[in-house]
Amino acid sequence: MDSFIQQLINGITLGGIYALIALGYTMVYGVIQLINFAHGEFFATGGYVGVICLSFFTGLGYMETHPIFCLTASFALAMMYCAYLAIGVEKIAYKPLRKESRLAALLSALGVSIFLSNGLMLTQGVYDKAYPSELFQNGFNVGIITISYLQILIVCLTAVLLVALNLLVFKTKIGMAMRATAQDKTMSALVAIGSNRIISLTFAIGAGLAAAAGIMVGLYYGSVRYDMGFLPGIKAFSAAVLGGIGNITGAMLGGLIIGMVEIFGAGYISGEYKDVFAFIILIGVLYFKPTGIMGENIDDTRV
Amino acid sequence: MSDNTTSNNPTEPILELKGVYSGYGSIKALRDVSLKVYPGEIVAIIGANGAGKSTTLMTICGIVPLEKGDIIYNGKSTKRIAPEKLPPLGLCQVPEGRRIFPRLTVEENLILGAFYRDDKPEIKKDIDHVYSLFPVLGERNRQKGGTLSGGEQQMLAIGRALMTKPKVLLLDEPSLGLAPLIIHQIFEIISDINKNQGTTILLVEQNANLALQAATRGYVLETGEITLEDKASSLLHNPEIRKAYLGE
Amino acid sequence: MIQEFKKIWKQYAITMLWLLGILWPLLGIHPDGTLSFRQTFTVWSYILAGTFICFIFYIINKSDNFKLLTEPIANTSQKLNNSLQSMPSWIWKSALLFGAVIYPIATGRYATDVAINVLLYVSLGLGLYVVVGLAGMLDLGHIAFYGVGAYTYAILNVKYGMGFWVCFPFAGLSACIAGCIVGYPTLKMRGDYLAIVTLGFGEIVRIILNNWMSLTNGPNGILGVKSIGILRPVMENGFTFEMFWVTKLELFYYFALGLAILTIIAVTRLGSSRIGRAWESIREDETAAELMGVNTFYYKLLAYAMGAIFAGFAGALFAARMRFVSPESFTFLESVMLLCMVVLGGMNSIPGIILGVIALIALPEVFRGLESYRMLVFGSTMVIMMLFRPSGLIAAKRKKMMETKQPEERG
């Protein structure tokens, strides 16, 4: 039972991270119906910018004196950097293809993904890059359950980001405009909503969330790698599809489910096949509910 | 907003199409279309299916790219203005098939009509005004747009367009797929908007009888070209029009 | 020219400044708490110089300053095209075949090696073309079927000592079964839901290959797979048969060529048959196809099965040629490459796919000199190709063919 609760906590931590990444997929998909394969790379880039910033602060010696400030600044900088990167990527590689076949945009996204992960490899090296901070590594025990401060940080920060996003999308005018653009771009233009700005904003928000997830993963596992974007990327994408792609609440739910399945699968069934469980659950759910858990009937969109 | 009152001189058209050619790719939907809309008028464009009526409106709004000719709105060419910059200038369209945002509530749809405006109390007042025009929308303000009936959706679409404070309102087939009673109600409100708020209206309709009764002037569009232009009342009594469009 | 320049120099300048902003944090912030600009600027100025040359070429091209050069080329290609069209198709077909047959004799070992790769990928690509191009279902895990075919032969050969020709149909069969397994649950799904499920399936296959130590020997792969054996009549001591192992690359080339030609013929015939039309109707509008009486369930499953069979055959040949299989050959990146080949060459045209395969196999070979920059260049080439030719290299031609062909078919 104790180990069950322990797994549950680990599952929530991982699930929250997947949810953050999945949101970027689902939002971008919702607005321009593109599977943004480069999204996993935004996540990896976020992890790298995080380690660059934290190392820099450690080098300056601020890390010992103002740890909270350094961490906050690193998160903010990485999120801004990835937002900036994503906006540029969208303008260069996706925007000219908006009127072309969806397959062309998809391949362009795959190209960007390959380009970015190799760009990271060339600038940052082939080997793992360690996070400098030993912060938050210790934790406290409840019974035999260990909860590290880092896990608390991750869960709290994830919750804050998710709530903030929900408020933005469902309570503000700009969020309304985002949803409107997702539903009907021509009509949005007719009520003075500039779809280019909304699309840029969507990419920026998605990439920012992915960057936050990247730093969390870096802190959690202690290091980052240039190709770390791939597997979490496709799992988060699975999460987005599982929840019903285009649906924000669905992506959060899907992320949590995939995270839980992975942790419990690894804990109770087999560690080697932990990556398989996520996909099996995905296929199983889609078999019974082809549009995902919360997905509405999408139009018959084909390649 | 650029309230250029001098160009609102009644002798000057507020909206003018000069030899407009446009279309989708290689298909030319409009050929040499010229028309004028004067402030305070209701102008009707009538024509059969596929004559290019909706394309005319979409070209005015910049959604379908203009290939040749020019569109003058309020004394200025709209060629270089992005579609989403037109509603703030007072040019707004209610497109064919309503195009309500289906997963947004009625109120959210209306708020988005006022997307470019920053004056919160004014927006609130305008929403209340729309609710007074269409009481049924006020009753259903928390309901998703997609769950409304066809008539209610048309009301919402007109209400949403009113939220942009239009000087010229383009209406595309407001009667499409609606019950006669609802059509009557909607046309009454259109006349009301024209009279009480001084909004100029360009109306596109297949239902020629209805459109010409409401309008001051009319144009007949056939396969992408304007073939006739006259006062609405004379068009209504034109035997050819009666034969071709009024089923006599 | 000036006008063209005016139109896009601003975009170019903004892009370059954006790139500087992207590069600096990655190169200029150091863990010892120092900041530097020099390295960033050097890298950036190299990129600037490189892209500026491309930019100038682009502008010159746009403003038709290359007319002197391009016009004669266009003219001759037009003439060539016309004469080709007036020639009966069997002439150039047999010329191509002749070229393909003498290819290994005319070229060296390395070129033959690359050519075998191309031929295997032609079979694979055409299999994917059935799924994506004809039936319109996005498949991001097609390489899994290739893997299933390769492993089927490797396991049957190494563990049970079965020969290539016995295993060959089994490789196709097991890939076909795998195709049905992935096809069945996805039949209800549409569009992008399919993409993730096929992707997931591809990953599942790879992970299983990686972890099922007792069967697949895990990441180490299976060594010592036998090559193709053919029985050769021997006249000494009376009439007997002797096992002859195809070890020479040149001989192997002909097997790959045979498979490729077989696939081309099969897919062409399938495409123009009743089945092909059913697939195309599903691609264009599944609901309408269903209402017109097309059994979409059956035909979609059939598309997966057919695509998988060709991949399975190619996989068996791949295992026989490499004499070694490991999960590393069947990654997601390979699936992406494969999809690229199909789309890049111009989807919906078989010559286009062959061209795409040649381009994408040859391109990395050309870039081999760039070493670690290879994949970077590959990724950016993919984006640039899509930006300039979003519907593939020879897509326009196909439309023309369709237009002229259709009345014939009806009449």
Description:
With 303 residues, chain A is mainly alpha-helical. Chain A has one domain (2-288): ABC transporter involved in vitamin B12 uptake, BtuC. Chain A is built from 12 helices and 4 strands; from the N terminus they run αααααβββααααβααα. Chain A has helices at 2-32, 39-60, 62-65, 67-94, 102-124, 149-171, 173-183, 185-190, 195-221, 230-243, 248-269, 274-288; strands at residues 129-130, 139-142, 145-148, 223-224. Chain A has a two-stranded antiparallel ribbon with strand order 1-4. In chain A, strands 2-3 form a two-stranded antiparallel sheet. The longest helix of chain A is centred in the N-terminal third of the chain and has 31 residues, at 2-32. Mean pLDDT of chain A is 88; it is low at 298-303. In chain B, the strands form 2 sheets. Chain B has a 6-stranded mixed beta sheet with strand order 6-7-8-3-9-10, with helices on both faces. Chain B has a 4-stranded antiparallel beta sheet with strand order 2-1-4-5, with helices on one face. By secondary structure, chain C is mostly helical. Chain C folds into 2 domains: 2-70, no CATH class; 104-394, ABC transporter involved in vitamin B12 uptake, BtuC (Orthogonal Bundle), CATH 1.10.3470. Chain C has 17 helices and 4 strands. Chain C has helices at residues 2-28, 38-62, 67-86, 89-106, 109-134, 143-160, 164-186, 192-211, 213-216, 249-271, 274-284, 286-291, 296-322, 332-344, 350-366, 374-388, 395-410, and strands spanning 222-223, 229-234, 240-245, 324-325. In chain C, helix 1 (2-28) runs antiparallel to helix 2 (38-62). Residues 396-411 of chain C have low confidence and may be disordered. Classes of the chains: A mainly alpha (303), B alpha/beta (248), C mainly alpha (411). Chains in contact: A-B, A-C. Chains A and C meet through helix 2, helix 4, helix 5, helix 10 and helix 12 of A and helix 1, helix 8, helix 14 and helix 16 of C.
